[in-house]
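Re-run requested by the PI after the first attempt was lost when the workstation crashed. Everything re-entered from the original request form. Ligand of interest: 4'-phosphopantetheine.
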Amino acid sequence: MERIAIYPGSFDPVTNGHLDILERGLKLFDKIILAILTNPKKNFLFTLEQRIEMLEDSIKEFSNVKIDTFDGLTVDFAAQRKAQGILRGLRAMSDFEYEFQMALMNRRLNREVQTVFLMTGLRWIYTSSSIIKEAAQFGGNIKGMVPPIVEKKIKEKYAQRT
Ligand code: PNS
């Protein structure tokens, strides 16, 4: 049986921390579907098209990874795609409460889908899309924390805004 996981997230934008989880997740699953949340009510910096473009460019070296979009419940999307797992990364303790709550709710909603957490690589422990955006907004150097295309697109985005 093919082992499929979805890796849901906002990916606004994708970071090297996400890619580390993805790469290691591929050792556990035959196929991983990057599931980008489209929820228009969320205040994303990048449009859906831009988030897809950056992800596509960043995952070129990985086989067995697909990009897809979803709205609504993650467990429903997982079931639609016949995925047995939901992959998520855990960084510092501060992630734990939110992730624990979400995993328990997801389990209650669908007991067939298992949430699998991977501890982030030590290098990425403080890397998050939000902190990267904040640093970049004020001209901070984010090289090495995000794929090159993201570094470029963030710079362009904030240059347009000033
Ligand atoms: O990268 P993020 O923003 O931390 O990802 C959050 C995401 C997309 C995984 C989460 O918001 C989510 O699953 N949203 C869909 C709605 C849902 O199923 N919520 C959890 C159970 S109520």
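Saved to the shared folder this time. Residues 8-10, 37, 73-74, 102, 105-106 surround 4'-phosphopantetheine (CB under 6 Å).
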